[in-house]
Amino acid sequence: MPLPFPEYDALDGLGLAELVRTKQVSAGEVLDAALARVDARNPALNAVVRRLDDEARAQLAALPADAPFLGVPMLVKDLQATIKGLPTSHGGHLLRDLPIDHDSELVARYRRAGAVFVGKSNTPEFGLTPFTEPEALGPARNPWDTTRTPGGSSGGSGAAVAARIVPIGHGGDGGGSLRIPASCNGIFGLKPTRGRIPTGPDLSDVWRGFAQEHVLTRSVRDSAAMLDATAGEDVGPSVACPAQARPYLQEVAAPPGRLRVLATLQPFFGRTVHPDCRTAFDDAVALLRSLGHDVEEGMLPVDGAALARAFLTIVAAEARADIEWAAGLLGRKPKYGDVQPDTWALGLLGRHFSAADYANAARALQVATRAIGQVMTSYDVLVTPTLGTPPFVIGALQPTPGELVALKALGRLGLGAALDAGGLLEQTIEKVFGFIPFTPLFNCTGQPAMSVPLWWNAQGLPIGTQVVGRFGDEATLFRLAAQLEAARPWSGRVPPGVVS
Question: CA 167, CA 177: separation in Å to the nearest integer?
Fold first, then answer.
């Protein structure tokens, strides 16, 4: 049966908003189109894990008339961002029935921008993995090949945007969690500069400032316009970034000029890069040169193995804090069984590490941040592959049966030291960072970074290219992204199972 409003699939958020603004369609018709696509396409993807049909229809009565995204359907990731009156599961079962009594500041700004929340998107437990396979919600699937991952931790939003369920999906990026699903799903994803997006009213720095929220989109201009609508500090931030010179939507229409580009295949947190990712990188470098940019290939002064351990030390500590915080909301202490075995094990490692371990890890990342900042004084942007491999088969990075037995046994006994001595940290580093060797570094440095979908492999899977800007310089990224979008249009590429 044909889906209503077939033009919906071809339009980005700003395009839909213009139709609503000029009364060519109503916001209700746009919402009906989105919900019909949830019905038709989500069962194969498990991208939307909580439908908000009633809440969305209630929003239609209070849309601000001059909003840039008037009546545009979007998903809110079921992590960090809170919607008043609804639970935020954080990808687990512990909090899935606990409603929150307020909007987060970012959600409030989405409302003022005219967005309509049609659902919550799938996410791994506490956003801890670069794939989206939570026990409580089930795995999200990639619309280009439903046997494969859509990435994480914003995998549900990425799959839904690529499948044309919604034009915009909210996400957060603590180690690549916007750029990873952008690459896996063939869409655009930008992680803003640290401090650009509000984190209130509950927190100031999330994961020591690693985590930044923004959106996944099919068009560059939607990302720019949404950043215009949401950027700017709220009450009580601990970090401020340089103010933007003019609206980012204007940057999209401006030429980037001749940029100084440093390109590297150096895997910062891993060891190897898949041939498909190398080919995509080479193709992107050739494209940049053909567009008149000065591209130099080189290396960054970082010790990847040391930085990977430092990064994971901090993430393990934050995982333990998240577990204790979640149990505290329920008025008790955490216990084994509250979370997945791998989440519990990571939290035990976080409890095992000393305060000095945590501080030394933070210092190591700060030293690397200064070194990379110095390198970037000579370049406008840095270019790398987004990922170390194409999207993998679902389950490939999960603990093996033997590892799971060990995790459960040591987890029940609370033996974080044994987990560390047994090499769990090194095994995790090898497995996880083999997939994401390029993205986490720029969560540590706070620089803006984006994944641009310029290449698809022989299996029809998208392979993204990462472009990193100087701290506070999203403007250059948007100008360059728009140039790349014009030179190598990707909006016409549609996953094979997506039909109106």
Answer: 18
Phi, psi (5° rounding) for residue 462? -70, 145
* Whole-number Å distance between alpha carbons of 476 and 418: 47
Distance (Å) of CA 433 to CA 134, 258, 270, 387: 19, 33, 5, 9
Q: Which residues are catalytic?
A: 77, 153, 177
How far apart, in whole angstroms, are the C-alpha atoms of residue 301 and residue 279? 24
381-385, strands of its sheet edge to edge = 48-51, 115-121, 72-77, 168-173, 212-217, 188-191, 449-456, 462-469, 381-385, 260-263, 294-297
Tell me the CA distances in angstroms from 403 to 126, 170, 427, 428, one per residue in order: 21, 33, 10, 11
Q: pLDDT digit string (tens) for 7-31? A: 999 999 999 999 999 999 999 999 9
CA distance 180 to 182: 5
- DSSP-derived letter for residue 127 is G
Check: pTM over 0.70? Answer yes or no.
yes
Cα 58 to Cα 471: distance, rounded to the nearest angstrom? 39
Closest CA to 364 of 419, 279, 316, 305: 305
